[in-house]
Design goal:
This protein has helices at 10-28, 30-62, 67-116, 120-123, 126-138, 149-173, 175-201, 203-219, 227-236. The chain is mainly alpha-helical and 237 residues long.
Length: 237
């Protein structure tokens, strides 16, 4: 009896997918990944500067700063905030819209060229049909998850950096607030982890059921509607 092929662990498969996606974008258009890195910084800097702006104004008023000093500091802060918001809008537009389109176009062209150069016997093999079906589901459109891994990384890393930045500010106010926030986040993480584990463990079952439903949908012939439904449709329409 042949040994069953070992499947990669979910964590390893995830990291392999992330690495493959980043390599595709790096070879296709490096500037997109650079803009995504800029988007991470701007998503963290813009809210922080917005919160910091009133503090700077109040500190200058309490310190009795000279008018010129006040204008230079507060005006410079305002100009910096405008520039950061502009860069954030620009980088967010690229990360949210261009990423999926470039990934989908590049993957579609690569898959099409590969299928055109393959042997017919290989294309008819069950292993290839299963892999091709998975690839088709992963690249159904520019909005699919596999096509937007860089955008997902932008959200993840910006949230992590924002958490670290604001955690430092909260600790200065009161450490207990940070502990409460960490506890609620931990509960939310464990609940989401249970959901992901369930979805992962039932993925193959749901995939088989989806294939059966698709096969039934392809072979199903809609019966002729009863006359009463036809009359109702005529009256309504």
């Amino acid at each position: 009896m042949q040994e069953k092929e070992k499947k990669p662990a979910p964590q390893k498969a995830i990291w392999s997918s992330v690495k493959l996606s980043l390599l595709i974008y790096w070879h296709e258009r490096k500037s997109l990944l650079i803009v995504c890195a800029l988007a991470i910084l701007m998503r963290v800097a813009a809210p922080y500067l917005t919160i910091l702006m009133p503090r700077v104004v109040i500190d200058q008023i309490q310190a009795g700063a000279e008018p010129l000093t006040f204008i230079l500091i507060v005006g410079g802060m305002a100009l910096l905030l405008v520039a950061v918001n502009y860069l954030r809008a620009f980088s967010d537009n690229i990360a949210n819209n261009a990423i999926g389109l470039v990934g989908f176009g590049s993957t579609f062209m690569f898959k099409t060229k590969k299928m055109m150069s393959m042997d017919y016997e290989l294309m008819e093999s069950p292993d290839f049909i299963d892999i091709e079906a998975k690839a088709a589901r992963a690249s159904t459109s520019s909005h699919s998850l596999a096509m937007n891994i860089p955008r997902t990384l932008v959200r993840l890393l910006s949230n992590i950096l924002g958490f670290l930045l604001y955690a430092g500010v909260i600790i200065l106010i009161h450490p207990l607030i940070l502990l409460i926030l960490l506890a609620t986040s931990a509960v939310n993480w464990f609940m989401l982890r249970r959901v992901r584990m369930y979805m992962q463990s039932t993925r193959h079952i749901r995939s088989k059921q989806t294939k059966k439903l698709q096969a039934l949908s392809d072979t199903y012939v809609s019966p002729k509607p009863p006359k009463i439904y036809a009359y109702t449709a005529l009256l309504i329409g």
